[in-house]
């Protein structure tokens, strides 16, 4: 169940990434949103006469939801990059990605609200069998995820195709100018000549020898850094259940806590983390991305994440497992701040800037899919680690394994920093056409500058 949505995301990134270049960004943008809508609602309507049937149905709709989310990655990043200019390009894409932080906070608030309402209407004790109203509660929480997609669907459908795609892929400069007229609300005469000359047709296909010679290193760098980041980032998210239990009521001590109350506390801790680390990290990235540059932010973010993981991992067995839980929680939250102010944001931005317009969503989808493959590895690793930390093990063994895991995550961050510094190409202050590295003559260069 942990990995099925991530598997859907991988498939969605690959399929919608390719469709975004073949059919158009706008043409498939709404389809991805529809899949997210159907997946969210379907999760709530997971049906069956047995627990296994319900979980199978839930798994199917989570997979469908993952496909929609995966499609949204390359399309959202590319559309924003193609609408922005080179001076604010990074900040605009980072601002789009930063909404993920508010989504995390909103999901926590929704969960807390539903739990509070149901707890007051249907009080129950922990030893009671799972009541029907608890079954309704988790379904409602999942279905409410469809609300933002419904709200944004109309505006997505009203967006014109990006001018860069229309001009550089469809080779229709006049239509691109008309679309820009709608977006910018300026006369057509100020955008293009009456009879603009069409751009040159594509010179080489995807995955050709020339493609790999020009863009192979960039594709490898984007994919590798995203892969390393997602191993660490998703491991940290999945291990929250191991960390949060220290702050929850101790049922073994005889504390009476309902399922709603326990879930409320988990959501509350998630909201606190979102407010002091996740959201500030995203905003810091928006502020710094065009001032400092992508490579520096990504490398420093990996480095600071490694320092924090080593700081909480090396002394974990002798210190953190018994003392200063709040300080540990604060440092743990810093890993999300440095990730969001660093590689979690930049790995989303850079693939949308480096590649030619006719390959842009495809390459972004490939890089994202490789990243989510790392997330699947972390999910499987988390499952294995959870099973290896059985109740019969003493606390010292559990602490030793957690220590090793945190140190490994720090080591992966060091590798991510090295790959970033050695292979990732800086894109700050450059237009998309300059980053393509294809302007071999003055005519192509002039066509590229019109979008700067």
TrEMBL record:
Q: Please provide one cellular component term from the Gene Ontology annotations of this protein.
A: membrane
Name the Pfam families on file: Sugar_tr
Q: Where is the Major facilitator superfamily (MFS) profile domain?
A: 1-428
According to its record, how does it sit in the membrane?
Multi-pass membrane protein
* Stretch list, region Disordered: 432-452
**Any one GO BP annotation for this protein:** phosphate ion transport
Alphabetized, the UniProt keywords read: Membrane, Phosphate transport, Symport, Transmembrane, Transmembrane helix, Transport
Q: Where is the composition biased (Acidic residues)?
A: 434-445
Gene3D superfamilies in the cross-refs: MFS general substrate transporter like domains
**Single GO term (MF):** symporter activity
Q: What is this protein called?
A: Major facilitator superfamily (MFS) profile domain-containing protein
């Amino acid at each position: 169940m942990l990995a099925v949505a991530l598997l859907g995301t991988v498939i969605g990134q690959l399929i919608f990434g390719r469709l975004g270049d073949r059919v158009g960004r706008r043409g498939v943008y709404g389809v991805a949103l529809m899949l997210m809508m159907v997946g969210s609602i379907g999760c709530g309507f997971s049906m069956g006469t047995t627990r296994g049937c319900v979980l199978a149905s839930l798994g199917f709709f989570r997979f469908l939801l993952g496909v929609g989310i995966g499609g949204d990655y390359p399309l959202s990043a590319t559309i924003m990059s193609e609408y922005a200019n080179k001076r604010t390009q990074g900040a605009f894409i980072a601002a789009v990605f930063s909404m993920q932080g508010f989504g995390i906070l909103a999901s926590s608030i929704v969960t807390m609200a539903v739990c509070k309402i149901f707890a007051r209407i249907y009080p129950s004790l922990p030893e009671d069998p799972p009541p029907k109203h608890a079954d309704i509660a988790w379904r409602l929480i999942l279905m409410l995820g469809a609300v933002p997609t419904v709200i944004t669907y109309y505006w997505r459908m009203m967006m014109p195709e990006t001018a860069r795609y229309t001009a550089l892929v469809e080779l229709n400069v006049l239509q691109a100018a008309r679309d820009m007229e709608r977006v910018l609300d300026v006369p057509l005469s100020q955008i293009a000549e009456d009879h603009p000359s069409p751009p040159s047709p594509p010179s080489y296909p995807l995955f050709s020898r020339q493609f790999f010679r020009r863009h192979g290193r960039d594709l490898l760098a984007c994919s590798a850094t995203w892969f390393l980041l997602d191993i660490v980032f998703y491991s940290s998210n999945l291990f929250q259940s191991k960390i949060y239990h220290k702050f929850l009521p101790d049922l073994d001590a005889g504390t009476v806590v309902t399922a709603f109350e326990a879930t409320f506390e988990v959501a509350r801790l998630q909201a606190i983390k979102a407010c002091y680390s996740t959201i500030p990290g995203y905003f810091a990235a928006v502020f710094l991305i065009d001032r400092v540059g992508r490579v520096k932010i990504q490398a420093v973010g990996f480095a600071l994440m490694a320092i924090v993981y080593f700081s909480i991992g090396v002394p974990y067995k002798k210190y953190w497992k018994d003392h200063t839980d709040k300080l540990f929680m604060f440092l743990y939250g810093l890993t999300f701040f440095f990730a969001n102010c660093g590689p979690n944001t930049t790995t989303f931005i850079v693939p949308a800037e480096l590649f030619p317009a006719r390959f842009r969503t495809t390459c972004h989808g490939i890089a994202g899919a490789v990243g989510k493959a790392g997330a699947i590895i972390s999910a499987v690793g988390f499952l294995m680690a959870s099973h290896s930390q059985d109740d019969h093990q003493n606390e010292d063994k559990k602490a030793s394994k957690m220590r090793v895991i945190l140190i490994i995550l720090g080591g992966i961050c060091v590798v991510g920093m090295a790959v970033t510094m050695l292979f990732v190409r800086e894109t700050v202050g450059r237009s998309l056409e300059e980053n393509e590295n294809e302007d071999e003559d003055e005519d192509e260069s002039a066509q590229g500058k019109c979008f700067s």
